Amino acid sequence: MKLNKQMFIFVLLCSVVICILAFPAAAHAEPARTDSAKAAIVFDPRTGEILYAHDEHERLPMASTTKIMSALIALESGGLDEPFTVDSRAIRVEGSSMGLTEGDCVTMRALVCGMLLPSGNDAANAAAVRVAGSTEDFVRLMNGRAEQMGLHDTHFVTPSGLDDDTDEHYSSAYDMAVLTAYALDNADFSQICSQKYIKVNFGNPPQDRWLTNTNRLLDSCEGVIGVKTGFTDKARRCLVSACERDGARLICVTLNDPDDWKDHSALYDKCFAKMRLTHMEGSGHEYEIAAAGGEKPVITAVAAPLDLMLPETAADKITAKVRLKHFVFAPVESGEQVGCIAYYLGEKLICELPIRAAEGTALRKAEKSEWKKLLRNIDDILGKADRYGLC
């Protein structure tokens, strides 16, 4: 009995050791889930780093977050404040609405507001017809733009995001994050999607109206600057948001998430804690550059100090490439750009920092007389050429 007991303890200890050796790698391979979404991602658009994700490449319906692409194309079409009459067939659509009726006079800017705030399907269709002539041709523009952006898990069927019978209207959490990063670079898009309320003018005759944003995170989560809500029976609750804290911007996407408001807030708290203030190499330094023909043969140039909030996973991987002119021609003004520092994460350009002259220099007096002599010679040559019919 004693031997059996010892054998039992030995076997038990061996099992514990095997478990300890076998599972730690797996335990650290993927972060614990902290959301209730079918797919989710938190993305740093500056570096492209992913701070949190699961099933981020799974193709899923994305409901009205589709309107991020529709709004971006509409804004890029131009003539944003030119009034026109909406297509009466385009606005006959189910679901959420900005309140368009037949004969209404509207602008493209107002339609984008109607897409991004109350999530108007009528606004999306009206903008599509105005831009491309039909919703079908507009969808072709959407898919072409998705291809240009490298959104390999995205395909559009409608401008609004309404469910279709083919299951061909889909995207992924990752693709929606990349799309949103592009969209936020558009100043009009960024300004509109950040508004809790916005006043627009449309109707027959046009009159001022207020539109309300469906994005509750603008009120409930510190630093949120947009972007778009979505819901259909097939897609369920979808949410794309962007948040800025301490000079950093993150984008969060959840698809099919019954608790998206809470999840986005929690994910931002978790992921901003993974950001680190990082000093950019070469910034704050002085450089010397020759000034050809200047009273000062060499001038000092400087790159301003630069610190960026970056993901911890990226902070130590940034490389700096200094691009400085071999020389400059006098005269040189103080503040004139004479080079730059380009910062990369791998092959991705993170930002560029100008290098500017910290001091100016005038042209040397002797050089002035030489320049005058040269200019007189050029003038004489041109004058002779004109007399002999050479010009």
List keywords for this structure.
Beta-lactamase, alpha+beta, 391 residues, single chain, disordered C terminus, 12 helices, 35% helix, five-stranded antiparallel β-sheet
CATH C-level of the largest domain = Alpha Beta
- What's the SSE pattern? HHEEHEEHHHHHEEHEEEHEEEEHEEEEH
Number of strands: 17
Outline? globular
Outline the biggest β-sheet.
Answer: 6 strands, mixed
Structural class: alpha+beta
Supply the CATH architecture of the largest domain.
3-Layer(aba) Sandwich
CATH-defined topology of the largest domain: Beta-lactamase
Summarize the topology.
Elements: H1 2-22, H2 24-29, E1 39-43, E2 50-54, H3 67-76, E3 84-85, E4 105-106, H4 108-116, H5 121-132, H6 135-148, H7 173-184, H8 187-193, E5 197-203, E6 206-212, H9 217-220, E7 224-232, E8 236-245, E9 248-255, H10 260-272, E10 275-279, E11 286-292, E12 298-303, E13 307-311, H11 312-315, E14 318-324, E15 327-329, E16 337-345, E17 348-357, H12 365-387
Parallel strand pairs: 11-15
Antiparallel strand pairs: 1-2, 1-9, 3-4, 5-6, 7-8, 8-9, 10-13, 11-12, 12-17, 14-16, 16-17
Helix pairs in contact: 3-4, 3-5, 4-5, 5-6
